[in-house]
């Protein structure tokens, strides 16, 4: 299961800000930035980032950073400003090990995904279900994100905890463009891709998730509508 909204945290952060204001103290800029991103308040988020007082790596109650929240909601300008300001690209959520790129691709935020890829975000990191950003994009039928990742050289033979890969989802989700792009890439390289090492790295993660009953076990997950 992908990261879910932290409603309780949002209410708590707003209460803290209100209490601080009532007491004549400055509001918590860290909480404000998370609340702004979670509430899709783009102008407020851009202002807070520009002021330079907010912690760009702050975590909400679900372990999501401002960049992850901007990626979920498709706040292109906020994501770009966070990246330019030095936000960590590859921090992962505590519950599912989703990166900002995974958040963007699972929710079809191609603009944010491109900004993250341009900035050097890890393309082939895997979550607790052994799904990469490319698999999440395909599973959730976001062809633009998937095509972007294929073009950037994402591993093509990563498989999730159910043993399903890119070509499976391209067929099942009726993404002919992705299927053609993957097949063309494989034909041009004469190799299956670079996913084997990622699968080997992911195996212990999947085993740990299964042992712990992680909600991410079984591979992938639907997009987060937050």
Topology:
Blueprint: H1 7-22, H2 29-38, H3 42-51, H4 66-73, H5 76-84, H6 100-106, H7 110-118, H8 133-139, H9 143-151, H10 166-172, H11 176-189, H12 195-212
What's the gist of this structure?
The chain is built from twelve helices and no strands. It has 226 residues and is mainly alpha-helical. It starts with 6 loop residues before the first helix and ends in a 14-residue tail after the last helix.
Task: Give an overview in words.
The protein has 226 residues and is mainly α. It has one domain (7-212): Serine Threonine Protein Phosphatase 5, Tetratricopeptide repeat (Alpha Horseshoe). 55% of the residues lie in helices and 0% in strands. It is built from twelve helices and no strands. The chain has helices at residues 7-22, 29-38, 42-51, 66-73, 76-84, 100-106, 110-118, 133-139, 143-151, 166-172, 176-189, 195-212. Helix 10 packs antiparallel against helix 11 (176-189). The longest helix has 18 residues, at 195-212. The radius of gyration is 18 Å and the shape is elongated.
């Amino acid at each position: 299961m992908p990261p879910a909204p932290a409603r309780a945290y949002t209410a708590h952060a707003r209460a803290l800000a209100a209490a601080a204001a009532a007491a004549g103290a400055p509001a918590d800029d860290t909480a404000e930035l998370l609340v702004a991103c979670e509430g899709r308040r783009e102008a407020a988020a851009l202002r807070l980032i520009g002021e330079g007082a907010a912690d760009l790596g702050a975590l909400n109650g679900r372990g999501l950073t401002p960049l992850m929240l901007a990626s979920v909601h498709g706040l292109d300008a906020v994501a770009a400003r966070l990246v330019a300001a030095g936000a960590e690209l590859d921090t992962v959520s505590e519950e599912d090990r989703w990166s900002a790129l995974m958040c963007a691709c699972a929710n079809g935020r191609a603009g944010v995904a491109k900004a993250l890829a341009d900035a050097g975000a890890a393309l082939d990191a895997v979550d607790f279900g052994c799904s990469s950003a490319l698999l999440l994009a395909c599973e959730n039928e976001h062809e633009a994100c998937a095509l972007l990742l294929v073009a950037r050289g994402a591993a093509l033979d990563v498989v999730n905890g159910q043993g399903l890969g890119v070509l499976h989802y391209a067929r099942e989700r009726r993404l002919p463009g992705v299927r053609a792009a993957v097949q063309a890439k494989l034909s041009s390289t004469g190799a299956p891709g670079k996913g084997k090492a990622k699968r080997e790295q992911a195996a212990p993660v999947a085993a740990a998730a299964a042992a712990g009953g992680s909600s991410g076990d079984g591979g992938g997950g639907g997009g987060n509508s937050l």
